[in-house]
C-alpha cells in the first residue's frame, strides 16, 4: 500500500515535528514489525501516532477504545497521552501482533494503561460500557460501518470517533474502484450523510476522518 503524501514530504514533516521520548522505541517496533508481520504498512507511523496522542490530550480522554491493535504503535501513543488513571482498551484477533504490542508497551512504561482484548472487535464492544472520549477505528475495513454504529452507544457526549485509512491510497478517487475500495467509499458516504454527526476528512498518512456528534 502506498500513501497519499510523497515520502520526502512525509519525512520532512516528521523532522519538523517535536522529538518524542519514545522515538527510539517506535523505531525498533517498526523494524520488528517489518521483519515479522506480513502487512507492516498497517502501522500508524510517527506522524499519525503523534497526532493520535495529541487528540487524546486535547480531549482530556480518560477512556479510549481502539479497534485494531496490530503491533501496538497507536495504543502506546494514545496511552502516553492519557489523563492520570486513564485506560486504552484495544482489540485485535492476531495473538502474534498482540504479543509484540504488549512487549513494547511494557518497555514504554504504559502497559498498565492498556487493556488488551483478543477477539472479534464487535464481540468485545458488546461486553463494554461507556463512556469513551475517543474511539479509534483501524480494523478490518469490511467492518467499519458496524464498528461505527456500535461505537455510538459507548461514546461520551462530546466524544470523538477517528476512522483510519479512509482514502485507501487514493483509490477512493478512482473512476473504477475495486470492491474493497467501494467498501471504504460506502463508509465515507455513510458518515458524510449521517445527520447525527459533524465530520472532517484529513489527508494524514492514508486518510483519517474525525467525527463528533452534533
3D architecture notes:
Helix 3 packs parallel to helix 4. The chain is α/β, with parallel strands linked by helices. 42% of the residues lie in helices and 21% in strands. The model has no long low-confidence stretch (mean pLDDT 95). The termini are far apart. It has one domain: Rossmann fold, CATH 3.40.50. The protein has a seven-stranded mixed sheet, with helices on both faces. The protein is built from eight helices and seven strands. The longest helix has 15 residues. Strand 1, helix 4 and strand 2 form a beta-alpha-beta unit.
Keywords, separated by commas or semicolons:
seven-stranded mixed β-sheet; 214 residues; alpha/beta; Rossmann fold; 7 strands
Q: Short summary of the structure?
A:
By secondary structure, this protein is of the alpha/beta class.
Amino acid at each position: 500500500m502506498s500513501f497519499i503524501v510523497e515520502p520526502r514530504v512525509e519525512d520532512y514533516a516528521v523532522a519538523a515535528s517535536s522529538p518524542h521520548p519514545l522515538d527510539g522505541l517506535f523505531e525498533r517496533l517498526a523494524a520488528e514489525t517489518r521483519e515479522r508481520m506480513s502487512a507492516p504498512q498497517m502501522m500508524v507511523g510517527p506522524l499519525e501516532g503523534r497526532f493520535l496522542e495529541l487528540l487524546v490530550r486535547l480531549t482530556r480522554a480518560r477512556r479510549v477504545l481502539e479497534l485494531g491493535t496490530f503491533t501496538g504503535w497507536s495504543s502506546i501513543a494514545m496511552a502516553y497521552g492519557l489523563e492520570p488513571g486513564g485506560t486504552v482498551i484495544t482489540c485485535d484477533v492476531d495473538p502474534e501482533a498482540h504479543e509484540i504490542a504488549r512487549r513494547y508497551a511494557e518497555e514504554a512504561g504504559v502497559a498498565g494503561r492498556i487493556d488488551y482484548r483478543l477477539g472479534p472487535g464487535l464481540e468485545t464492544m458488546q461486553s463494554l460500557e461507556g463512556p469513551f472520549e475517543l474511539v479509534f477505528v483501524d480494523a478490518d475495513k469490511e467492518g467499519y460501518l458496524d464498528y461505527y454504529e456500535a461505537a455510538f452507544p459507548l461514546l461520551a457526549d462530546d466524544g470523538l470517533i477517528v476512522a483510519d485509512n479512509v482514502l485507501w491510497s487514493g483509490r477512493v478517487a478512482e473512476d473504477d474502484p475495486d470492491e474493497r475500495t467501494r467498501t471504504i467509499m460506502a463508509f465515507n458516504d455513510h458518515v458524510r450523510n449521517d445527520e447525527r454527526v459533524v465530520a472532517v476528512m484529513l489527508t494524514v498518512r492514508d486518510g483519517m476522518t474525525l467525527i463528533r456528534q452534533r
